[in-house]
Specification:
Length: about 60
């Protein structure tokens, strides 16, 4: 079985906007999921204890 390339990175712990966990989703210049190494941008999303989004932002030039 081959392993899928990792297109996101979970970040555990407290975050600046009150989130308990965060995930960074990597995207290429056409907004398709890709690996961190080939990302043109990333979407950072913070979640609270209940899995609700409390903050998100787009990071360019990754």
């Amino acid at each position: 079985m081959t392993q899928q390339p990792q297109t996101f990175k979970p970040i555990l712990g407290e975050h600046p906007h009150g989130g308990k966990t965060a995930v960074v989703f990597f995207q290429d210049r056409y907004f398709r999921p890709c690996t961190e190494e080939s990302a043109a941008r990333a979407v950072y999303v913070e979640y609270d204890d209940h899995g609700q989004v409390v903050h998100s932002m787009v990071l360019f030039g990754c």
